[in-house]
Automatic annotation (TrEMBL):
PANTHER family: SIROHYDROCHLORIN FERROCHELATASE, CHLOROPLASTIC (PTHR33542:SF3)
Keyword Metal-binding appears in the UniProt entry: yes
MF term (GO), any: lyase activity
Protein name according to UniProt: Cobalamin biosynthesis protein CbiX
Keywords tagged on the record: Lyase, Metal-binding
Pfam families: CbiX (PF01903)
Keyword Metal-binding set for record: yes
The organism of origin for this protein: Jeotgalibacillus soli
Amino acid sequence: MKAILYIGHGTRSKEGAAEAKQFLSSVINRIDAPIQEISFLELTKPFIDEGFERCVKRGATEITVIPLLLLSAGHFKEDIPNELAPLQKKHPHIQVKMADAFGVQGRILDAITELVKDTAKGVNIDDSLLIVGRGSSDPLIHEAFAQIKKGLADRLGISLVHVCYLAAATPRLKEGLEAISNEAAGRVIVIPYLLFAGLLLDEVMESVHHRQQQGQAIIYTDVLSRHRVIQDIVIERVTGKEPADAASYY
């Protein structure tokens, strides 16, 4: 029997954990599969081993792992496989396959473009963008964000676009905000390249609010999971085809 095991990153934020679980519940309700379980890599229960064992107890003979990760970095390449390895050894009769991370996709960039336009009530040539990634020591992350940067600049017609990170890569958020603020002619639009709310989003919000209080014209968009296309991508990862009710709206 086929099973789906969703793996989120996890967070210390109760709000962020609840949001991720609600998102996955919505996905599960849109998929016709006999066994579907939720798990998290760290910080939020149930963890991967518990989710995997639940699939086994429910009669799974084949488990498809769906990582809720925007980009392929250490969590995708090392951490999740390391968690799955002893479980596969314990249950050698169960076939396990893992879907790809989302990667840089045109429809995700289209969704972010919609988020920006909705938040900013339209954009103009004087506006600038600051894309804030989670961060990773994987050098390919910088290549991915270079693609994201170009894709959003082209879609929005904005020439001043910077990228910064919240951890494990530079420039960090404080440096990124300072640099783009010194160059910006108009508003600064901050894009948290994150799936869900949590402590990392809180850090972005606090930094933006601080600058707003100082009189700067700066705003931030919502997290990516608030756009319907993210659900559609997860469903496509599970089923191998675009969902019949796929749509591009909030």
